[in-house]
Description:
By secondary structure, the chain is α/β, with parallel strands linked by helices.
Amino acid sequence: MAPKTPTGGEVVMRCLEREGVEVIYGYSGGAAMPIFDALVDSKIKFVLTRHEQGATHMADGYARSSGKPGVVLVTSGPGATNCVTGLFTALMDSVPMIVLTGQTITSMLGKDAFQEADTTGITYPVVKHSYLVKNAADIPRVMKEAFHIATTGRPGPVLIDLPKDVTQGPCSAPMVDSVHLPGYVIPGRADQSLVKKAASLLSKARRPVFYVGHGAVISNAGKAVLQLAEKLGAPIVNTLLGKGAVAEDHALHLGMLGMHGTAYANKAVAYCDLIIAIGARWDDRITGKLSEFCKDAVKIHIDIDVAEFNKIIKPDVSLAGDAKLVVEDLLPLVTKADTADWLKEIAGWRKDYPLKYPKKGGLRAQHVLDRLDKLGGRDAFISTDVGQHQMWAAQFCLTTKNRHWLSSGGAGTMGFGFPAAIGAAMANPGKASWCVVGDGGFQMTLCELATAFLQKAPVKILVINNRYLGMIRQWQELFFDNRLSGADLEGNPDFVKLAEAYGVPAKRIKRSGDVDKIIKWANSITDGPCLIEAEVVKEDNVFPMIPAGAPLTGMIIEKPKLRMEKPAGST
């Protein structure tokens, strides 16, 4: 008896298995049912989330923390459109992700069938690439190409739209082991003549700064970056997403730069004579007023994506290639510069402008996060949401291991932190995963408490509750005469009771004296999620701060006495 011809959905599963996929996050529906049926006989674990956006952020956290692509499976129409925010988040932060969406049958495409949406059209701006598969014979090739595109070069999300008749019908196409994509070139090592030019400039610098971004995390360039920095005697600063590429507790490391970076990191950048960007894209939160950003400094840019060259800054040397390989090629060509006076000056700034916060006047988010750092945070995966708590966590929770810091950078996606932490916990069993969220962002995806509970994901949720959209309130206070609008979160639930309703143990912190005890309690829970609600002072501000559109030298160290002017054209 001849073997049964597999369905398109079964072939999709076989392709995923061949790619080493261990877990899929998603939400079922009619147009994707043939794929879900094939899941029954697959060894791949499926996690039913409570919302498709949560599925994309879980896959994102899985990918960021492991380096492996995250996979999502949802249905057509609203199932697919609910993934747009997660796709956008992954694209902005270069995260490898495969999103499989169900679609109406091919004969009904473009005819407004039930739950039909032009998924590839809607998502075109927020993916690295996308496919609409109209022939089942194309499934093995498309799947192989999708994983290759998502995980190579500058990583990113790839969407595959699969009509129901394609996945329900027979598919006899053989598996595909290689790809042929003319025009898709993955940079490796940079032009060696340009490498030599960059090495010469580095060797001549007296006030160099290494500006490290997410590309260094992705390429695992940290060891080479540190070796080069130590050889030159150059300080290191990182972006929000560059945290962990080089351990932030190293003597040469000055922490995060930019809008809410450390004062000494920003001063080093403002007064350097050479800045080398390693897997970083000169983001507006970094440069401030562009015309005054390092205007007299030599600029070197290392990036795997040539589209980033000359987009914001015109560097003296642009090195197209994998960050790790490019830095390794620079190492033997660089000679130690005389940076002793530069490092001494920076040490003075570090002493004069330390990160600080009031020790009286109520529970401070900074204190809670400082203690989290001291009580095991540096060994844990830390995922954040977006807002004041995110910046405080970036300042006070030092990241010492690559891929251990997860945060939405380019998109600034509220609701990201909690589901991303679930994905990280599932990708790294046996390792602690902390989720630092605000009371605003947490409520956007808190329905995933059910997912965390059912999966026994050991996520420790720290809700920094100030009953405000804190960063909105801070800007309105500083730049809009404290005319608060759309910032007060009156009506917040009791987060402790809410967690307990989902079966998740929870405790509340109201006093500074209870912080250590309750963090240690959370660290002791390893068989599932737990939650801490920290009731912090309502009206606290994140400093240092560089107002949007202002130069780095316009940094504010503490709350100004007078009303500040909103910089023209700022966001």
